[in-house]
Task: inverse folding
C-alpha cells in the first residue's frame, strides 16, 4: 500500500487536471513530485486510487468475497463483515474518519442521493444492487457509520437453502406445496434474518407462465423467473417533488395484470392496498414484514393499517380473507438463519385475527403443531414430499 502522503500528492495532481487515475497519469503525477518508483509501485498506487475514487476503497475485497452478505463500518479501524455465521471484525481499516465520510458521500452520489450536513443520512441502492445506508456525524457519534448489504448475482434455490439449514429436512416439500396452492403469505422476521433471501427462492418456484410484479422500497428481490416486473420507490428531490411511495407502486402494480403481487416489505399505508388486492382475486400474493414472532404479525399489520386510516374491525376482516400463512425466520446466536415456525390464520370469537402454530423447526424435520391439519387442508396435499413429525398438543410449551 502506498504511503498516505504520496497518494495525497497524486490526488491533488489528478484533481487539478481532472484526470482519471490511469497508470500513465499516476506515473506522471509521481514524476512531477520528484518521485521515481518501479512499475509495481506505480500500478499499486493506481489501483488504490482507482478503488478509492471510483470503487469502494478498502472495502472492495470484502464486497468481492462471495461469502460476505454485509459489510459494516463503525470506525476507521472497525470494519465488520457477516459471512452467514455472525459478525466478524476484519483487519481492513481506513486512514481516518474523514476517509470513511468521503467514501460514504461518494457512494451516495453514485446512487444519486445527497449526503451532507443538511441531510446526514441516506438509504439507497447502488447500481450493482448493493444496499447502502450511511449516517454522518454528529448524528453518528465519532465517525460516519456505513452499512452495505451485498446483492447476490442470483437468488438461492430452495434446495440450497435446505442444504444451508434454513429449511429443515423435508421442509422444502411443504414450501413447494405452498407456492403450488397459490396461498397468500407473509415472511416475517427481524433485520438480517433472511426474509428477502427466502422470498426470492420461493418466487423462483412460480410457474413460468405467471407474471410476477414486485413493488419494493429498495429493489432487493431477485427471483429466478422469466417474467418479473420490478418497481422501486423514489425519494423526493431537493425541491420536495417527485416522490414515489410504496403505496403508489402497489396501486400501479394492480393495473399491470399481476399473477403474483409481491410487496418487498410491508411497513406503511401500502398494507391497505395489498390486503384489498388479496381480497379481489389476486391469489398467491406475498411479501415480508418485520415482526418478533409469527404471532405478532396481526398486531403489526393492525398498527400499520390504523396509521393508514383503516379501523381495527375492517382491517381484521380483510386480513382474515386475504392472508393464509406466515413463515417466520429467526437468526440464532451462531448467526444461522432458519424457518422457526409456520402459522396459519384464524378468527377468534371476537372477530379478531390471530395466528395458530402449524409447524415448528425441528433438527430432523418440521414438527406438527395444532394448526397443521388446517395448513394441510389449505395445501390440498399438493406436492408435499415429506410431512412433518407429530408434535405435542396445543398448549404445551415448545419454546
Result:
Amino acid at each position: 500500500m502506498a504511503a498516505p502522503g504520496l497518494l495525497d500528492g497524486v490526488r491533488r495532481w489528478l484533481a487539478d487536471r481532472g484526470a482519471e487515475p490511469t497508470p500513465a497519469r499516476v506515473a506522471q503525477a509521481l514524476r512531477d513530485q520528484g518521485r521515481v518508483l518501479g512499475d509495481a509501485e506505480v500500478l499499486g498506487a493506481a489501483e488504490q486510487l482507482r478503488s478509492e475514487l471510483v470503487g469502494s476503497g478498502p472495502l472492495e475485497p470484502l464486497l468481492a468475497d462471495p461469502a460476505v452478505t454485509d459489510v459494516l463500518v463503525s470506525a476507521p479501524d472497525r470494519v465488520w463483515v457477516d459471512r452467514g455465521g455472525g459478525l466478524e471484525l476484519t483487519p481492513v481499516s481506513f486512514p481516518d474518519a474523514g476517509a470513511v465520510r468521503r467514501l460514504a458521500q461518494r457512494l451516495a452520489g453514485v446512487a444519486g442521493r445527497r449526503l451532507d450536513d443538511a441531510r446526514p443520512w441516506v438509504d439507497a441502492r447502488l447500481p450493482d444492487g448493493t444496499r447502502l445506508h450511511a449516517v454522518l456525524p454528529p448524528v453518528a457519534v465519532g465517525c460516519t457509520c456505513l452499512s452495505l448489504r451485498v446483492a447476490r448475482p442470483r437468488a438461492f434455490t430452495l434446495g440450497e437453502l435446505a442444504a444451508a439449514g434454513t429449511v429443515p429436512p423435508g421442509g422444502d416439500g411443504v414450501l413447494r406445496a405452498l407456492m403450488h396452492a397459490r396461498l397468500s403469505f407473509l415472511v416475517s422476521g427481524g433485520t438480517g434474518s433472511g426474509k428477502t433471501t427466502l422470498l426470492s427462492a420461493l418466487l423462483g418456484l412460480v410457474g413460468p407462465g405467471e407474471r410476477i410484479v414486485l413493488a419494493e422500497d429498495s429493489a432487493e428481490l431477485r427471483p429466478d423467473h422469466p417474467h418479473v416486473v420490478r418497481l422501486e420507490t423514489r425519494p423526493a428531490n431537493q425541491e420536495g417533488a417527485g416522490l414515489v411511495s410504496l403505496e403508489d407502486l402497489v396501486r400501479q402494480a394492480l393495473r399491470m395484470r399481476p399473477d403474483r403481487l409481491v410487496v418487498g416489505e410491508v411497513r406503511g399505508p401500502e398494507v391497505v392496498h395489498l390486503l384489498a388486492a388479496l381480497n379481489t382475486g389476486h391469489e398467491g400474493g406475498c411479501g415480508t414484514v418485520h415482526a418478533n414472532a409469527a404471532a405478532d404479525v396481526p398486531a403489526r399489520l393492525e398498527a400499520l393499517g390504523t396509521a393508514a386510516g383503516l379501523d381495527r374491525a375492517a382491517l381484521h376482516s380483510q386480513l382474515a380473507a386475504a392472508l393464509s400463512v406466515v413463515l417466520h425466520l429467526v437468526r440464532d446466536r451462531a448467526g444461522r438463519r432458519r424457518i422457526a415456525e409456520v402459522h396459519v390464520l384464524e378468527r377468534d370469537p371476537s372477530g379478531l385475527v390471530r395466528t395458530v402454530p402449524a409447524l415448528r423447526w425441528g433438527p430432523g424435520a418440521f414438527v406438527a403443531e395444532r394448526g397443521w391439519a388446517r395448513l394441510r387442508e389449505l395445501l390440498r396435499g399438493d406436492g408435499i414430499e415429506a410431512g412433518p413429525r407429530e408434535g405435542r398438543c396445543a398448549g404445551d410449551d415448545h419454546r
Remarks:
- The chain has three domains: 1-54, 55-151, 158-390.
